[in-house]
Design goal:
Layout: H1 3-15, E1 20-23, H2 27-33, E2 45-49, E3 54-59, H3 63-70, E4 76-79, H4 85-95, E5 102-105, H5 111-121, E6 124-127, H6 129-135, H7 141-164, H8 171-183, E7 189-196, E8 217-226, E9 229-230, E10 233-239, H9 244-263, H10 270-281, E11 295-297, E12 304-308, E13 321-324, E14 327-330, E15 334-337, E16 340-344, E17 350-352, E18 361-363
Parallel strand pairs: 1-5, 3-4, 5-6, 10-18
Antiparallel strand pairs: 1-2, 2-3, 7-8, 8-9, 8-10, 11-12, 13-16, 14-15, 16-17
Helix pairs in contact: 1-6, 4-5, 7-8, 9-10
Length: about 375
């Protein structure tokens, strides 16, 4: 158990008037305990109480495994498939002083189980995600260094990808190339979006099959984990050359990125950072195509606090790391994005962690390029 983070969580719980937080299997449970079991439909999770004590409830299938992982200091209660789960959990919650109390839930808690427990035990479940994100929103010196190294891995792979991308290969082949490049540099988790041609207009495109054509746009959005710290960068590559329309749009996106990054300093008001990119895009009435926030926090997860959007009414603080990623997306036609990870380091300085070229990158240039 990461006791220092458990202590932070208990302080936040008391401030939020929560009696406990339920952390079901997933990335958040791994963060606090170093382990997460297989997730199925059977209810299970770690309960952390406001006094700092914790216990685990799971099906009998997982009992011995969780006792081994959590150790003697964390009681593990089990229920059997031939019992009514809610009856057993009700008795445990009463024993632990939580029956009828207020309990926060994490992102992977299953609603169908939580609703049944609430009805049986009089629990008021609340959104615990903001508390769990606040626990780790300020990166330690060690975490900051691992963020730098994770970003450096992504940067190195991008330069190799520029020599690899060619017409005739599929999006999936490029994705696999990115994965291999990150893994051989020590990454323990890899993820990527490779979107070509009109697919680049879909910000979270998931396909792999389209074949790269001459005069295509190829949007690369990828990252990895290095010592648990994630990287995430986006670059837009042009196959053969750039049309005048593409040059115009890329210049707009690049200036939007620069405008937001220029404001990303210690003490900056987060809504202003999102707005700055949209002001630039609206020079050509294109802010409406930026259908997502300008950025998101990063660390143990690719997406975590602080979220760079106009409804996040707080200021940037030391130890925060986040993306700046404005783009233009014209559905079914064209899309491009420029994303860097930015960090306010322990000295209060702004660091742009990604060093990959920001200027338009053309691969396999054609002697002539006609729109």
């Amino acid at each position: 158990m990461r006791t220092e983070y458990i202590e932070k969580l208990t302080v936040l719980m008391r401030e939020a008037s929560m009696d406990a937080v339920l952390i079901s299997p997933g990335e958040e449970l791994t963060f606090f305990t170093g382990f997460s079991p297989m997730m199925c439909e059977r209810f299970q999770g770690l309960f952390v109480k406001a006094d700092g004590k914790a216990f685990y409830i799971c099906n009998l299938l997982y009992g011995d495994q969780m006792r081994e992982e959590l150790g003697a200091d964390v009681p593990v209660y089990t229920w059997f498939d031939n019992e009514e789960m809610t009856d057993v959990v009700d008795g445990i919650l009463e024993r632990e002083g939580l029956k009828g109390k207020v309990i926060g839930v994490n992102t992977s808690a299953q609603a169908f189980n939580v609703l049944d427990i609430a009805e049986r035990s009089g629990i008021t479940f609340r959104n615990g995600k903001p508390l769990l994100e606040e626990v780790r929103i300020h990166k330690s010196l060690e975490e900051q260094e691992y963020l730098r190294q994770s970003a450096a891995i992504a940067d190195a792979v991008f330069l190799e990808a520029l020599d690899f991308i060619k017409p005739g290969m599929t999006e999936g082949q490029i994705m696999d190339f990115l994965f291999e490049g990150m893994q051989k540099r020590g990454a323990t988790f890899v993820e990527a979006i490779v979107a070509s041609g009109p697919n680049a207009s879909y910000p979270h495109y998931e396909g792999r099959d389209r074949v790269i054509q001459e005069k295509d746009i190829v949007l690369l959005d990828y990252g990895c984990a290095f010592h648990e710290m994630m990287s995430d960068m986006s670059r837009t590559v042009f196959v053969g050359g750039m049309s005048e329309e593409e040059k115009n749009l890329y210049d707009l996106v690049e200036r939007a990125n620069a405008a937001s990054e220029a404001l990303a300093v210690e003490g900056a008001w987060i809504p202003d950072i999102d707005k700055a990119a949209r002001v630039v895009l609206d020079e050509q009435d294109l802010a409406k195509t930026l259908i997502n926030r300008v950025g998101h926090g990063i660390g143990y997860s690719t997406h975590e606090g602080p979220y760079i959007k106009q409804t996040n009414h707080r200021r940037l603080e030391r130890g925060m790391a986040f993306s700046i990623e404005p783009g233009v997306y014209i559905s079914g036609k064209i899309g491009m994005r420029l994303e860097d990870i930015v960090m306010i380091n322990d000295k209060g300085e702004t660091e742009v962690l990604n060093k990959s070229p920001r200027e338009p990158m053309i691969v396999c240039p054609l002697k002539e390029y006609h729109e």
